[in-house]
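ARCHIVE CARD
SHELF: 3
SLOT: left
DATA:
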Amino acid sequence: MDTLAVLKLVVEEEESSAAATYLSAAAGRGDMLVASMLLYTELHCAAHRRGFPGQLVNSVLGGINLVDLARSDLMYAAALPGGLRSADAIHLAAAIRLQSDVLVAYDAELLAAAVDAGLNVLSPGRAN
C-alpha cells in the first residue's frame, strides 16, 4: 500500500469509504496488509501538516505490517523508469521485492509503473 491509500483511512476523501471497506475485508480474509517503513514517516508527516493526532495515525498503522526498507530497494527505486517521484518509486521497489499480490494505490503514475512491473493494482472506489 502506498501513503495516499492509507491516508484515506485518516482523512475523509471521496474514496475513503471504499478504501476502508476493501482493506477491512482483506484483513478479515487473513490477507496481510503490508507497506514499507516509508509509510510510517510519510503518514506521520502528513498528519503533522494537517493537524491530526499521532495516535490516530498509529491506530491506522497498527493494522499494517510495516517492513524495513533494504538498501537494494533504494537502489532499485532509483533505476525504475517512468519518472516516478522518489517516495512512489520506493513504495514500488518494496512491493516488487516483497512480491506483493496487489498494490493498493491512487497515484496514476505509480499505478502505471506497477502494472508495467507486472503487479496487480487496485484503487478502491475508483475505476482502474
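SLOT: right
DATA:
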Amino acid sequence: MTSRHDPTGVGDGPRPLVVLLHGLARRHTSMAKLAAHLRHAGWETWAKSYPSRSQPIEELAAQVTEWLLAAAGDRPLYAVTHSMGGIIVRHLRDPRLRWKRIVMLAPPNQGSTLAAGLIDNPFFGWFFGPAGRGLASLPPAWPLPPAPFAVIAGTRRFALHNPTSWTIGRRFSRDEANDGTVAVRETKLEGMSAFAEVDATHTWIMNDARVQMMSERFLRLGVLS
C-alpha cells in the first residue's frame, strides 16, 4: 500500500522507502504491526525475511544489500530495525544505497552478554548459527550506521511472551537494566542522534505504541520526542 503523500515533506523526486529489518531467528512478519503504523502515517515500507540463522552477519548484509538495490534503486532509504537487524544495517554501507535516517530497536550494538555466556553451548550454536556466534564477541570492526540514527532500548526485564526473559535472561544482575535479552548499556552507540528507554520487552518492542510513534517521528523529523 502506498500513501498519496510524502511524510518527509520533500515533494518531487523518488518516494522514500522504509526498510524494516527483523532480528535473529525471526521473520519479516514480526514487523507487520509496525509496518501498518508507518503506512498509515504515509510511508511506504519494505520487509523481507533473511536467513538469520544460517549465515554470518557480513554475508547476511551482502544479501540484503542486493535485495535493496533491486527493490529501491535510487529512492531515499529510511530504516527501523529490531535487535540483530540493527547490526545488519550497520553493514549496509554500499554507496548506491541512499540512507537518510535509521531507528534501531533494542540493538546489541556492543555485542551480547547473553550470547557470550552461551557460546560454548552446542544447542546455542546449532539454533542461532554463525550470526548468533558473531553477537557473542566484542565487535570492534562493526561499522557505524550509514545515516543519522536513534536507539530505543527496552527495560521490561520479564514477560511471558519473551522466553529469553524467564530463561537465560535471568543471568542479568538485579541492577542491570535490560529488556530480558539485551542490556540497555549494550544498545548504546557512539554518534547516536537520540536515545530513549521504554517499558517494553525485547521480543515485541516494535509493537509498543510509544515505540511506533517515536520511530515514525524520528524518521520524519530526526527527533524521538
